[in-house]
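Lab meeting notes turned into a lecture example. A postdoc, R.K., suggested we walk through two folding results consecutively so the class can see how the record format repeats. The first protein's sequence and structure tokens come next.
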Amino acid sequence: MLPEQCKGGPTVAAKTHPEAKMHAVSWMGKKNMQVKDVPRPMVTDPADVLLRVTNTAICGSDLHLYLHGMPGLRSGDVLGHEFMGVVEEVGESVTKLKRGERVLVAFDIACGQCFFCNHGYQSSCDHTNPSKVQELMYGQAAGGFFGYSHLTGGYQGGQAEYVRVPYGDINCLKVPEGLSDHEALFLTDILPTAWHACEMGEVHEGDVVAIWGAGPVGILTAHCAQHRGARRVIMIDSVQDRLDFVKAKLPGVETLNFKDKETVSAIQEMTANEPGRGPDVVIEAAGFHYSKSWLHAIEQTLQL
């Protein structure tokens, strides 16, 4: 159970050390990211964990912040929502973790007690995102996210030397011995994203799977599809270097450059002899960053 001090939601702005500084990747404006010296965070609430970050990653969705494609950013915001490290300090109510343990942390901040957390929807946690703007824009706010604007709570992110993790017992996953940081880091975001895509598509043994987007998420999605028994995986992209990388690293994966061939007719030709006369599962792994129409460009400019 959460201590009474934590039941109304965590403190967003962490207490900071009066003297100690740290390096942190900070958003300073559109296309302006800087490594700044900022005050080091401290344990603020009883359920907090202070993490010394050992590895962190840049997410494709960080590009939206870089281009100021999302409202709620403020100059000096510390970014990063894919990170892991070593427990430096724990709050008085933390019972599952101790100093020196290696843990990884996902993007979302869950309380572990609300309706949504209890039903497995931690990214919709009802207690961790105080933003009223997101609620007005979309009807309901998501949970709090690390380093992803004040629209998702305004929490400092993990592209820094230290990060404070609210509800540490809930949001830190211990890393088993024998697993390197580099191997474990993928579990903070990108690998679960790829696996979830296959879950949503219900990829089964023998399936033909078509994946749009041959970036890191798309490539890991192809890995996951193969692991789940997909008989054929077809990757579609317009960047030939990406498709060449796929061919070199993922034996058996077929590729299609939609700059060279019209996609629908090419897919139909490639799968003409399949029982379903097409892919059994299609997965979009490219995201929304690049506009394909004037309307889409206007929507992105207005941050809609």
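The second example is placed directly after the first for contrast:
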Amino acid sequence: MDKASDSVNYYRLLKGALQFSIFIKNNIYFPQFGVRKNNYEINAENLAYIEQCLWRPDTDAACPKFIVSDIMDAAGIKDPLASAFLSGAVISVAINYNCDFDRGDQCLPSYDFRRIDQPEDKISPGYNFRTAYYYRNSNSTLKRDLYKRFGLRFVFVVNGVGGRFSIVPLLIAFGSDQLKLSGCRFLQGWVCSVSPLWLLTLC
């Protein structure tokens, strides 16, 4: 960090960012069952609920609104101002659906947060990138200002598992098992019929 950066109170500027809210809108499709689900149509009074709720892993795990500080805590980042905000960070957001369509249409996802970058790296730790701004000064000389930017990058991973009872796979599995048992009985009878006398005692 250079002298110009040292003169800025980053802690004071970034502290308010911990209270930013993030709304995650996600959709998923189960083509085998023709079912589409999402994470924001939670109940009949959906609009009022979305406006008032905040995600909490123990009390309100279905809410799709998150506070940045809660995400940092869930990702295991103990001091986000020092370890994530100043150098940046990459956060994995895993959205998992586990749906039983025989029990109605209610299928709410669960959320898992994890930091996936390596803050201990010696070379360019965290998440950062550079952008350039080109302009001409009063003498028409081409100039360039190079900015190094730090931030939080969220990587979303969506997994979905859905199931529904069907009589056809059950009958196929049952018939296959019965066929296997019949084959075993036939094979046993054939072996006993052609076996020598000393093997007949095993039949």
